[in-house]
Amino acid sequence: MENRYGVLDKLHVTVLVEDYAGYDSDLLAQHGVCFLLETEYAKGKKTILFDAGQSAGPVLNNMEKLSKNPDDVDLVFLSHCHNDHTGGLAGFLAASSRSRIPVIAHPEIYRSNFAVKPDFRTFGMSPENSPGAVMKAGGELLPIADSLPLAPGILTTGEIRERAAFEKKPTLTLLTLQEGKMVRDLMTDDISLIFILNQGLVIVTGCSHAGIISILQTAVSITGINHVAAVIGGFHLIDAGGDRVRKTVEEMKTFSVDKIYTGHCTGLKAEAGLLQEYGSSFKKLRTGLTIEF
Question: What is the rounded CA–CA span in Å between residue 106 and residue 116?
């Protein structure tokens, strides 16, 4: 597959933390997401921690049970600010013996992010994961809004600047502050990872607040590759109306998506629609699930 970003030889995905642990599992589940992405390419390997769950305890517990070593992680990628994806960051970094571990995130990841209905609650980065705390724990923040190549066959989507008409507003109503005034937060910090393999693109998302269809459109536009071998992550349709769910399922088919692995914030309505459309090519995420490409 000819493209200017290169091609991966292998991608091994391990779900370290997800809302659901599966039947008869000794692993810990927690509302949130954390994936371990182990890659191989012609001249090397790179291991990425994608999001850090709500807290480090379950992540590190499950890594130990799955014989994964925090010291093997080369970089951390944060999909967006929400604490069920970032809460375990400093704790994970502190558990690694490595220093200056790159932490890639959108420049606005530390903005205020909150809701006022049904009551006031904050969802953004917690004080224990402040820039100073991340540095002290051994991380090096790299805030970047543009698409960034990480290795041959691996790149970030960067900010999703072009959104499908039906995805322009996130399904979750959140607020942020601009000059002391409350405004709707459009979750511009929502970013994802793109992996290029011979069988097509593999897209890994956190919650897809930018819209899963908009994310796929961006990945195809950046790479020039329109075949999506798999989409892995949450789609945040749990609070979406039926029309948006149906539109998402319909639009997904235009990308020739082979397999869908989803859970967390996707919601039962959307999961049922995707299962009906994709059959055995639909898989529900769970802690401990492994996926090989």
Answer: 24
